[in-house]
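The instructor's notes for this session suggest beginning with a concrete chain rather than abstract definitions. Hand out the sequence below and ask the class to guess, before any prediction is shown, which regions might be ordered.
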Amino acid sequence: MAVRRTRGRVRVVAAAVVVGGVLAGCAGQPGAAAVVDGRTITTAELATAYEQLTPIFNGAGPQDVLGVLITEPFAAQVAADEGVGVNDEQAMALLRQVAVQAVGEERGAALEFGPGAIAVARYSLAASALQDLPDAQGAAEAYQERVAAADIEVNPRYGEFTDDLVVAPPAAPSWVVPEGGRAAADDATPEPSPTP
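After discussion, reveal the predicted structure:
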């Protein structure tokens, strides 16, 4: 009897490992939040950037940050090609300015920002610079073409990269019942009316 329980536990653990492996990464890259043209954005990098940006960017979710981390190199490259490139020092200055405005001088000065947060600020500066170009439409198209041509794979845990150049959150499985109510499918089905 102890042998059967042990085998059952081994099967459960093995199944959990297989499922966990599928959810843990993409393209065979454990710990990857996304892989973009072979460049891995790790879940740790995403978590750190999100944690560092949360105090100063209200309402941004992990998918928002991941979307920017995916597309930032393309925006930065187009900005550089157009002669309006940005650097890490400018990005850090933007982060400091926003931090002071969001949480005050003392607390804002104490916040630390790593490579992911700096990349988000670089993206913001590059996107703003591209919008201010005389041919902003052409720059936007060049950026969109580069993103569209990229091989982008997002870990299903975070959702999927869409044609709108954002990471859409994963859809809840149909069997998940929303808080305080019936499943969405139940809401779509009208109750039968009693026959007279």
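Then share the key points. The longest strand covers residues 32-36. Strands lie at 25-26, 29-30, 32-36, 39-42, 152-154, 160-161, 167-168.
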